[in-house]
Amino acid sequence: DAGITQSPRHKVTETGTPVTLRCHQTENHRYMYWYRQDPGHGLRLIHYSYGVKDTDKGEVSDGYSVSRSKTEDFLLTLESATSSQTSVYFCAISPSVKVHEQFFGPGTRLTVL
Amino acid sequence: AQTVTQSQPEMSVQEAETVTLSCTYDTSESDYYLFWYKQPPSRQMILVIRQEAYKQQNATENRFSVNFQKAAKSFSLKISDSQLGDAAMYFCAYRSDWDDKIIFGKGTRLHILP
Question: Helix, strand, or coil here: A63?
Fold first, then answer.
């Protein structure tokens, strides 16, 4: 299994508070991704990174920001959490464009009250 | 824009029987990759099988096989000899050869009946 961890695994927070989710990999893979999973929507891409300090928006990026200062860490920040951001968040990694599949972390369940 | 459609939100199959999950996709690209991911109750996303569009031969992984119809833009997953551990949500996914991103379908929840 790819060495991907996510922290925290569960979090409950209140509307308006900032939240940061961390994805950590031990594979030295170049590409990292953040998805959210909601019933009836499958997985939707929030942001992704194709190298240190290189990031781009995905399909549902509004209300989220990311940072990648080291190869191994990709942070997802909700600046001011809203109830619509209650979801399960997955991090994924991929070594290169030549390896087309992605490998996923265990997920973080976030509840915004 | 590419899209992936899974028309069966839920399916059930008797243990030891065979079941086929459907997936269609829309793309104007000629080079791309298709995947089936499994998500059991543990929530972990597991890659089941992948198919390169340039390969005519259908991919197979043990009891899992695909029926890839490029002209019809169809990519179905067949599970033979279904087992209780196959119960999960299954996601079909597409990735263009030139893109960094994967597009997922909305999933099919598979129930295995003992």
Answer: coil
